[in-house]
Amino acid sequence: MSQAQPQQINVADLDLNQLSDVKRQLEEELNHFTNSFAQLKQAQAKFKACVENVSEIKPENQNKTILVPLTNSLYVPGKLSNPTHVIVDIGTGYFVQKTREEAAKHYNAKVDYIRTNLETLEETITKKRDNLNYLVNVMQAKLQSQSAPSKSS
């Protein structure tokens, strides 16, 4: 079985309606990638906050009442019974007990993983923006070339 190779088409050969369709598709893709980038940035910020929260746990706070974060804006009082271990959300509703060092390592690995994805996504967004700018320039040139003969007659 042979795989179909993507066919390359010169955008200058397309008419304005086709160029409009391509532009709309590029704008949708760019919007999707931009939204994904923002969501990844938020996730990265949450993991960085987790690293900070883990580092704030001190052995001298054992059996003292502390505020436990349930969300970014909701805290409940609780007692720190074991300052050397924390419960870590590893995803899809699963939690494991880890030492503070293991938890920090886990969250730092998440931050680094997201950083590499952000870098890749940023490159993709830049390429899409360049493609969109090129397409807009081609559309403007076609519009000018279509309106130029009508002015001279």
UniProtKB/TrEMBL annotation:
InterPro entries: PFD_alpha_archaea, Prefoldin, Prefoldin_subunit_alpha. Residues 9-43 form a coiled coil. It holds the Pfam family Prefoldin. Keywords: Chaperone, Coiled coil. Signal peptide: none annotated. It comes from the Eukaryota. Belongs to the prefoldin subunit alpha family. This is Prefoldin alpha subunit.
